[in-house]
Amino acid sequence: MSSDMTDHDLPHEHLDGYCVDALRELYLFLDGELTEERRVVIEAHINECSPCMEKFQFEDDLRVGIRTVVQGQVPPPDFRDRLLSAIDQAAAQSGGA
Ligand SMILES: [Zn+2]
Fold first, then answer.
1. By residue range, what is the domain housing residue 86?
2. Sequence-distant contacts of 46-50: CB under 8 A, at least 24 apart
3. pTM of the prediction?
């Protein structure tokens, strides 16, 4: 009996474990609640890993928009467009190929 499982090469398989850590700490990072040491690690990972970079920028944009609304200011006109296109991208990616 031969198992014919193909080895799918994930785009950033070598970063797999780091991605889990990075995404877990992403929210702490954005809240400024990470230690200096961890910030450096997460920052370095985000700079090297485009999936995490996109996720980070999406969350960062989201927070800026929310903060703006909370402060009673009007979000920039392109905020909604950028948000929608970011959601589109995320949906396309997680939808599987
Ligand atoms: Zn990553």
1. 13-94
2. 46/22, 48/15, 49/12, 49/15, 49/18, 49/19, 49/22, 50/12
3. 0.53
